[in-house]
Design goal:
The complex is a heterodimer of chains A (about 800) and B (about 300). With about 800 residues, chain A is of the alpha/beta class. In chain A, about 50% of the residues lie in helices and about 10% in strands. Chain A is built from 31 helices and 17 strands. In chain A, helix 3 packs parallel to helix 9, helix 11 packs parallel to helix 13 and helix 13 packs across helix 15. The longest helix of chain A is centred in the first third of the chain and has 35 residues. Chain B is of the alpha/beta class and about 300 residues long. Chain B folds into two domains: about 240 residues, Alpha-Beta Barrel (TIM Barrel), CATH 3.20.20; about 40 residues, no CATH class. Chain B is about 35% helix and about 20% strand. In chain B, helix 5 links the parallel strand 6 and strand 7. In chain B, helix 3 packs across helix 5 and helix 5 runs parallel beside helix 6. The radius of gyration of chain B is 20 Å and the shape is globular. The chains are: A alpha/beta (about 800), B alpha/beta (about 300).
């Protein structure tokens, strides 16, 4: 970092997240005047343009890349048309101890007097909850699954290289071409398509307008600047903002600024999940970098400075705040923007280059919460590049996570994508796979596997809510074999998957008809060609994910139950269920046996791993290929984020020895502390899952720093990663920090505010995590050398 | 028509532990098989339970929840009854453990081959250690032979005491021999390990002319074998052995103390402190001066 970027970084770290009512106010005023006067896509595009025209433009001192979603850094807008905060929500957000957003009194007043009265019953969330059936609400309340789209729009997508050779004026030409081809005689949807295309064209104008306003502000600041050097920078910024996004970028700075305007557009239009990401940044910027160096207009250090300014912009963008019950829980400030490094080029050759190393240096130096980063590791990725990434990981910030680029391609081919599109794709959010710039790959909610077994062991009765929740799958006292248990589990799982998918159809339809995203559609192939919105199936590929949580806990519970009830005959199934209902009261020896003597996933022990494979195959068959509402299909994903903590809270004690309320296992990691045969055994167990059939899996491992010392430590980590990827493993991430250090941070959070740990698919400030999650991270096995 | 030759029954061995992701016993990622029984009784032994060739019932106090389940099966005494397996099985926490289990060669191979992918990726393999592998020579040879047939890199970690023919046969099937040297003085060797060093030194001298990949391992135990006279004698001797490729200095640590007490045995090194890093570094220099590539720790 130089003086400038070190200062910008510090300012970003010091800025306090706050809520801004600016967007809500503008949106409300616009809807009051325009609702009912335009077709919905055009209404949305005009609303977007209204925002671009009137929002505060902010250019910070010393910035080289400009643009803030809110009126200043870390000022987070709200999206009342999707989900409207109550005054109580705002007060909770303003006062809760962790991940607080300050809220000005005037904002609460504006909400009470103006915004809430307008949007109540009108927001998409209100409509969505009203439209969903009773059975859905019951399952949601029980914690059988969660919902992704009730507060944030379907986003979950990433840009490809399409903007680097074409300005928005060029996209408008494509839109005009597509409009000209509409056949109003034969195509009954032609009028709808015309509206969608017109909306897309308006949204391009809107973003160009926003850029022009930045140019004007930069000119104004340049005229007022006392320092001639800064004045020159500002005049250059004005020039850049007049060039992009309207026209194609000519150099490194314009390329970065163009992406950043697109990012602003996507996250201003709606609050889509995972914000937005530039995808293979090292690959996309490579031509500009090479040309700049060759022509002498750019140096490596100048590129570093611009990239560091670009990183700070990501970090300024705190995630949108939640409403309802979740406002009281500590959430996260991260918005899941995730850079891809390395990987493959569309022609199948290695995609890493000198910028990959430069970006790794920047990640190591800046260690900011956002953007997240990952390395796509293919067979062709040079060892030196992977080892560079491992050295950054060893420093303990959890970045970058590692993905198996070859498996990522294979997973997409299985879903029917073209080879080139698959190679140009990658990973975003936590571990999700998508064809960048060409796919709407939507996560719809976490699915609680442990709850399914709990229901199966209670004939569909939910012990926590005290009511019949699922179908009657058989009285467990009548179960004679382990197969009877599995059958009941499958009945419950299918039932709740059906409820989830029926609910998803309703929600997807609501977004398709009421909440189109014309600007995101411009950036996503083939929305322009098809005249269809991103939220309505306009993308070339449309995969919908259900994320199963707790396969480790479920596997261990089934394997333990099989052993003690059906093999050893220590007790009957009914007795076991009663013991679990009582949270092992008076049965500590039994709990110890379940914890210590039963087979555990993560030890390369087929007594447990075979159960995992079986459950996985069942889930795959139950989910994969089912049609969604956008012409695509459902896929299985094995990703928890932090939901394993919540799902554990709604589950009573389980047969793996877990007490009531404790977290479930996360991702495809073993139950915390259950893996006792070392890292190779964990990887072998995880490798028995057929990762290629998923849309992503998440494996978390924790190493103590002493195990990774020196070149030898990096070599060993490198071998573990390469071996796991030879087994088709999808993703692996490492936490490199001692339990002692985490304990210390828990005791003295004020001294460890900057401590970043890998949570699950993303990194977060340790001190911002809930106590339950802090404890769980400490418990994850520390793989120390196991000398007895 | 002659009867088909009856194949000799594959030998069964008794192992004490099997450690995957083993980093101290040769190159790459390895699986180390610890065979039970050792002719030496080193005062600093980390695994005194491994010395006896018989299975040993042990107690991990940290895991015991005092539920009393084991007493019902094997009585209250520390000495187990004649059915230790039942005692172990009765324990819900794993505090009661029986160290030493008999495995057939094929059974062991299934276990160790699980990490084949990691061996291939990292240039690792399987190390036979102990105890002392040469206490079960037929088993050790059968395992090494089977691994060689499968193209797996093999290492033999030996204290050097055993029949020369057994050592030669096993070493011939090992890509690498890890050979321990504890003391050059016969009397001192006898005092601290229970046996003299004559046969060990003779074995090393002979093996060094036949085997091209020998790594010497010297535990550095302050006050026992770290005096300059002994170390220089060690260096001189090792420098004269042609097959030696490197020498690892393993700093003493006291992990064995608690185990000795648990077994009701006296621990002679209570007053000994682990050698400092600076001290270890100076010892590396000492061996380097004799032209021996020396390292601290067994971590390649």
């Amino acid at each position: 970092m130089n003086e400038r970027t070190a200062r910008l970084r510090q300012e970003s770290l010091d800025a306090t997240p706050s809520l801004s009512s600016e967007r809500a106010g503008l949106m409300t005023a616009f809807y009051r005047e325009h609702l009912g006067k335009h077709a919905t896509p055009i209404l949305r595009a005009l609303a977007f343009k209204h925002l671009c025209q009137h929002k505060t433009v902010w250019i910070g001192e010393g910035e080289l890349i400009v643009g803030e979603r809110g009126p200043r850094p870390k000022a987070v807008p709200t999206y009342p048309e999707l989900t409207c905060h109550t005054a109580e929500d705002l007060r909770i957000l303003d006062t809760r101890p962790m991940t607080r957003y300050t809220v000005a009194q005037e904002m609460i007043q504006a909400y009470e007097q103006d915004i809430i009265p307008y949007w109540q019953g009108r927001s998409l969330r209100d409509q969505l909850f009203a439209a969903l059936p009773e059975e859905w609400h019951g399952a949601y309340e029980a914690g059988a699954f969660t919902e992704f789209m009730e507060q944030r729009a379907p986003g979950h997508t990433v840009l490809d290289d399409k903007i680097y050779g074409k300005g928005l004026r060029g996209f408008q030409a494509d839109i005009a071409c597509s409009m000209a081809l509409l056949d109003f005689e034969k195509d009954s949807e032609a009028q709808d398509k015309r509206d969608q295309l017109e909306a897309m064209a308006i949204s391009c104008d809107a973003l160009i307008l926003l850029a022009e306003r930045h140019a004007e502000e930069a000119d104004r600041l340049a005229a007022a600047a006392a320092d001639p050097a800064r004045a020159a920078e500002l005049r250059r910024i004005a020039e850049v903002c007049r060039r992009v996004p309207a026209q194609a970028p000519r150099d490194f700075q314009e390329a970065l600024q163009y992406y950043w305007f697109c990012h602003q557009g996507v996250i201003t239009e709606l609050n889509g999940w995972d914000a937005y990401s530039p995808g293979h940044l090292d690959q996309h910027l490579w031509p500009f970098y090479q040309r700049g160096l060759k022509e002498g207009s750019l140096t490596r250090e100048a590129a570093r400075e611009l990239l560091e300014c670009f990183f700070v912009k990501f970090n300024n963008h705190t995630s949108p705040s939640k409403v309802g019950v979740t406002a009281a829980e500590s959430g996260t400030y991260t918005d899941f923007a995730n850079l891809n490094l390395g990987g493959l080029l569309p022609d199948g050759s290695d995609g890493s280059n000198e910028l990959t190393d430069l970006l790794l240096e920047i990640i190591d130096e800046m260690h900011l919460l956002q953007p997240s980063s990952n390395m796509q590791v293919s067979r062709k990725t040079p060892d030196a590049t992977l080892k560079h990434a491992l050295k950054v990981i060893r420093n303990g910030y959890g970045f970058p996570s590692l993905f198996n680029a070859d498996a990522v391609v294979e997973e997409q081919l299985r879903q029917g994508k073209s080879l080139e599109d698959a190679r140009a794709g990658g990973c975003s959010g936590c571990v999700e796979v998508g064809a960048f710039g060409k796919e709407a790959y939507i996560l719809t909610g976490y699915f609680n596997l442990s709850k399914m077994l709990e229901l199966a062991l209670h004939d569909g009765f939910d012990p926590r809510l005290g009511r019949q929740l699922g179908p009657r799958s058989g009285d467990p006292s009548a179960f004679r074999t382990f197969e009877d248990v599995i059958r009941a589990f499958e009945i419950q799982t299918r039932h709740f998957l059906d409820i989830k998918i029926r609910g998803n159809q309703i929600i997807e339809r609501l977004y398709a008809t009421r909440m189109p995203a014309p600007f995101l559609s411009v950036l996503t192939d083939d929305c322009i060609k098809r005249g269809k919105d991103y939220n309505a199936g306009g993308a070339r590929y449309n995969n919908t994910f259900i994320q199963a949580v707790g396969i480790g806990s479920l596997t261990d519970s089934l394997a333990a139950l099989k052993q003690v009830v059906f093999e050893r005959g220590d007790l009957s199934l009914s007795e076991l269920v009663v013991t679990l209902d009582s949270d092992f009261a008076g049965h500590e020896p039994l709990r110890q046996r379940l914890l210590n003597k039963a087979p555990k996933y993560g030890n390369d022990d087929n007594a447990a791993d075979d159960v995992m494979v079986r459950v996985f195959r069942f889930l795959f068959q139950a989910i994969d290929g089912r049609p969604n509402g956008k012409g695509g299909a459902y896929r299985l994903e094995m990703l928890p984020t932090t939901c394993h903590v919540y799902f554990g809270q709604v589950c009573q004690a389980s047969a793996d020895g877990r007490r009531a309320g404790e977290p479930l296992s996360e991702g495809i990691s073993p139950v915390q502390g259950a893996d006792r045969n070392g890292p190779t055994a964990v990887l072998r167990s995880a490798g028995k899952m057929d990762h290629v059939k998923t849309g992503g899996t998440l494996l978390n491992m924790k190493f103590t720093p002493s195990l990774l010392e020196g070149e030898g430590g990096i070599d060993r980590l490198h071998h573990l990663v390469r071996s796991y990827f030879k087994m088709d493993g999808h993703h692996i991430q490492f936490n490199v920090v001692t339990a002692a250090k985490l304990r210390e941070a828990q005791a003295h959070p004020e001294a460890h505010r900057g401590l970043i740990v890998r949570v699950a698919g993303y990194s977060d400030y340790f001190c911002d995590l809930s106590l339950a999650l802090q404890e769980e991270i400490i418990r994850r096995t520390e793989h120390e050398a196991f000398a007895e | 028509m002659s009867a088909a030759p009856v194949p000799a029954p594959a030998p069964t061995g008794r192992i004490f532990n099997l450690q995957r992701y083993s980093l101290q016993d040769g190159p790459g990622l390895r699986t180390t098989v610890f065979l039970k029984g050792c002719p030496l009784a080193c005062a600093w032994c980390h695994n005194p339970e491994s010395q006896s060739p018989e299975p040993v019932l042990v107690m991990q106090e940290g895991r015991c929840i005092a539920c009393g389940a084991c007493y019902k099966v094997c009585g209250e005494g520390e000495v187990p009854s004649d059915h230790p397996e039942a005692c172990v099985d009765a324990c819900p926490t794993g505090a009661r453990q029986l160290l030493g289990r008999d495995v057939a060669v094929e059974e062991l191979l299934v276990e160790v081959m699980k990490d084949r992918l990691f061996f291939d990726q990292s240039g690792g393999g399987v190390t036979l250690s102990g105890g002392e592998p040469l206490m079960q020579p037929a088993f050790a040879v059968a395992v090494l032979e089977a691994l060689r047939q499968r193209g797996v890199h093999t290492a033999l970690d030996t204290c050097g005491l055993g029949r020369w023919e057994d050592l030669l046969e096993a070493a011939a099937l090992a890509d690498l021999v890890l050979f321990d040297l504890k003391h050059m003085d016969d009397a001192q060797h006898r005092k601290w390990t229970g046996v003299g060093n004559g046969a060990i030194l003779a074995n090393l001298e002979r093996l060094g002319r036949r085997h091209p990949q020998i790594w010497i391992r010297v535990p550095v135990v302050p006050g026992v074998n770290d005096d300059p006279a002994n170390l220089e004698a060690t260096a001189r001797f090792v420098a004269s052995v042609p097959g030696v490729r490197r020498l690892d200095l393993l700093p003493y640590h006291s992990t064995g103390a608690a185990k000795f007490r648990r077994l009701g045995r006296e621990y002679l090194l209570d007053q000994v402190e682990p050698p400092s890093e600076a001290r270890m570094a100076s010892l590396v220099d000492l061996f380097q001066a004799f032209g021996i590539p020396a390292h601290i720790g067994g971590n390649p």
